[in-house]
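Worked Example 4.2. Consider the chain below.
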Amino acid sequence: MRIGSLQLDVPFVQAALSGYSDLPMRRVARACGAPFALNEVMLDKLVLTKGKKSREILDVAADDHPVGGQLMGAKAEEFAPAADAMAKAGYDLIDINFGCPVKKVVGRCRGGFLLSEPDTALDIVRRVYDAVGSTHPVTVKMRRGMDDTPQSEADFFRILDGAFEIGVAAVTVHGRTVRQRYVGPSQWPFLAKVKRHVGTGVILGSGDLFSAEACMRMIEQTGVDGVTIARGCIGNPWIFQECRALWAGEPLPPPPSIAQQRDGIEQHCAHSVDTYGAERASRIMRKFGIKYAEHHPHARQVRDAFIAVKTDDDLRGVLDKWYDPSADWPPVVRREGHGDLIAAGATL
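Applying the procedure from the previous section yields the following structure tokens:
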């Protein structure tokens, strides 16, 4: 799959995930086969305000490529300088967020709110493209509209068509509305409609991608050029290995063993310590541990153990107790659906 100047060997992307897709998560995803990852969404104001946060945002690691920087904001005039700063810092692609459904974001006229303001949305796209489009691919993330009204759908297609006319390299479409947030199914038939509408324009699909099989089904059923995996890859970097296997026509690999799970978590911990220091890393790893726990045969107990982590020693204790590869664990089974573990005998 090609996104502007970026050529990806498989069409499976790690999405921008607020509060999650930091450098350690991206490194683990790449080790498991993700060909491209996006940093968590950043406010244009944070990028432009000098300080610790902007330094963190603009510090792109040498081994973190290709990487996309996703921007969110409310004022068109602030997007272009922020995009330029991220491009100069080393991001390989600039993505514009018109899809975030969080109430406080929408209430501040950011993210998904802009789907109801086509003129402002397209002004933002034009300014970002004029600022960096000659050197970096510019992409857009959208939901299928603010709500299910005909006007909302008309606004969606106006922004979609206008963005491609301006020159964006790809558009990611999530099959839920902003009002819907994460309730109810993602409307994959809408993705098929979008892909038919744009023809050769690159469309990436998003929504309800919690397994490699689901990723393949979305491509097959909708015709989208690729997928962005969001919640489905938190604590599950192995989904990229599984996607690669299915894409190559190979059988689905077995679910990650206890030893593989421990190795993945330890790698994630090591990257977090390198990035944040041991004290902060142990706190950050709690939220990731909760998601990693879903793969364990004793998912509920392991989840509770991660929740109780306060120090690096606590984290090491969880691994030693619950991820001892020599212990007699029940069979590991693959999680399915919305992050749930489905298996006979699994302890939830």
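Residues 209 and 215 are 6 Å apart (CA to CA). The two ends are 38 Å apart (CA to CA). Compare this with Example 4.1 before moving on.
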